[in-house]
Design a protein that fits this description.
The complex is a heterodimer of chains A (about 190) and B (about 180). Chain A is an alpha/beta fold and about 190 residues long. Helix content of chain A is about 30%, strand content about 30%. Chain B has one helix at about 140-145, and strands at about 1-5, 40, 45-50, 55-60, 60-75, 80-90, 95, 100-110, 115, 120, 120-125, 130-135. The longest helix of chain B has 9 residues, at about 140-145. Classes of the chains: A alpha/beta (about 190), B mainly beta (about 180). The interface between A and B is medium-sized, with 26 and 30 residues.
């Protein structure tokens, strides 16, 4: 397994969960045993979307309403219980602005007020893997990249201002520059 | 494998089909009597409710509902199940579209494709499996769900989308755990 990435804001999420209560976690990435194990020790429901295969559909559409329709189809059906935590991880980087806006709106509609979203944005690096990387919790403070595609593409390098425009319902609660050049964000609804 | 509520407990138990003389896809032995499990073969297609009190291996196709009170269900690599499943233990190597209720465990293996919600005290998923749905890991919710796991439940979590043909409403069935 590659060297784990210190992710203090992810750690802050875990600390909040350790305070107790029930948590509904929405994971946009693929199902991974390490993620299930990590959240399985809490009273939680883990909703796994595995969105990566739907990125081309979202990015290939220009009409915002149609993007939202696609996003609704890619997400799990809405349920009575709202989401507390969203794991975006590096997927943000693979969505163009309209797709990011539509997807995050659809997610917001599933979340409770005050919900938190954790994301990783390529910030200082000009290039990034050509497909999303699979991240899993290595422990409470670290994320590990367990699949890194070999190809590369330019990184959109979304700034906090870009993200504020694309995700108007979310505010940046905290941001941290990580050792690998990614910016770790904790967004709040 | 982990047990809900236990911190990071890795899976240590052997696979139920780990006999060196028996390929993993072959019929598992019945947990109670030691006899061979019933098999729905690759050429069999069933629409409707399947109920029983012995272990079952599915290599064919089942659309409807599957209920095995205190026995295990294995969906083999060729198996296709479009049904809500209620069983003591559920092992998936094939394709499932539907919700899985395992009173003891649900194991999703690396070649499995599952679209649906999983509710069980013990859930394991091997990396490589394709899964889309919810995994309930709150012991209180799991216990509560077990009390509602009769097919005629009214407050159960929203089921995964499934073909209309698989949505036949089953009735209460003897042999299926309906309460805590």
């Amino acid at each position: 397994m590659p060297e784990a990435l210190n992710a203090p804001l992810f750690h802050s999420l875990i600390k909040r969960m350790e305070a107790g209560g029930r948590w509904v976690v929405l994971d946009l990435g693929p199902a991974r045993s390490a993620t299930i194990r990590s959240f399985g020790r809490f009273r939680s429901r883990l909703d796994i979307v595995d969105l990566a295969d739907g990125l081309d559909v979202l990015n290939g559409e220009a009409d915002p309403r149609r993007i939202r329709t696609h996003a609704e189809q890619l997400l799990l059906p809405r349920r009575n219980e709202t989401t507390d935590i969203v794991l975006l991880w590096d997927l943000i980087n693979y969505l163009n602005r309209p797709a990011l806006t539509a997807l995050m709106e659809c997610i917001a509609a599933r979340c409770k007020r005050g919900a938190l979203a954790h994301g990783l944005v390529y910030y200082s690096a000009k290039r990034m893997p050509d497909r999303p990387t699979t991240f899993v919790p290595a422990d409470d403070q670290h994320l590990a990249q367990i699949s890194v595609p070999t190809g590369e593409r330019p990184a959109p390098r979304y700034s906090p201002e870009d993200l504020a425009k694309c995700m108007p319902r979310y505010t940046v609660e905290r941001g941290r520059l990580l050792r690998n050049g990614m910016q770790e964000f904790l967004f709040k609804l | 494998m982990f047990e809900i509520g236990k911190k990071g407990a890795p899976e240590t138990g052997p696979r139920p089909e780990s006999s060196p003389t028996r390929p993993e896809t072959s019929a598992p032995r019945s947990s109670g009597s030691g006899r061979e499990a019933a098999v729905i073969g690759p050429s069999i297609h069933i629409d409707g409710d399947v109920r029983g009190e012995e272990d079952l291996l599915i290599e064919g196709e089942v659309n409807g509902t599957l209920q095995l009170k205190s026995n295990s269900l294995t969906v083999g690599p060729q198996g296709k199940v479009r049904a809500d499943v209620y069983a003591h233990s559920i092992y998936v190597d094939g394709l499932v579209e539907g919700d899985l209720y395992g009173s003891e465990r649900v194991a999703i293996r690396k070649n499995a494709q599952v679209r649906g919600n999983v509710t069980s005290p013990r859930v394991s998923l091997e990396d490589g499996a394709r899964f889309k749905g919810s995994i309930e890991m709150d012991p209180q919710a799991v216990q509560s769900s077990a009390g509602r796991a009769a097919p005629a439940r009214s407050n159960a979590p929203a089921p995964a989308p499934k073909p209309a043909a698989a949505a036949a409403p089953p009735s209460a069935v003897p042999g299926v755990k309906t309460g805590p």
